[in-house]
Write a structure and sequence with these properties.
Blueprint lengths: L12 E6 L5 E6 L3 E8 L4 E8 H10 L1 H10 L5
Antiparallel strand pairs: 1-2, 3-4
Helix pairs in contact: 1-2
Length: 78
């Protein structure tokens, strides 16, 4: 399962871990993605979304209806 936010599109970043001796090894910066279940009143059902913590706050601010509309506008199935 990919570490990708459905609302913001945030994906893992890639970089290097630098040790004390300055050796560089590849690493991955994963976004903090959480699975959340929201009630969608217009459809009378729950929807399960994989959201970053920033997107969870965004859903609290704009509402679940607007968030689902944005996800669907990007062509993603909810």
């Amino acid at each position: 399962m990919s570490r990708r936010c459905q609302l913001t599109g945030r994906e893992p970043g890639f970089g290097k871990t630098v040790s004390h001796s300055h050796r560089r090894t590849p690493r991955r910066f994963d976004p903090n993605v959480q699975a959340r279940r929201y009630w969608l009143p217009s459809e009378g059902r729950h929807v399960r979304l994989r959201l970053s913590t920033k997107a969870i706050r965004l859903v609290d601010r704009i509402g679940v209806e607007a968030a689902v509309a944005r996800i669907r506008a990007r062509g993603e199935r909810v």
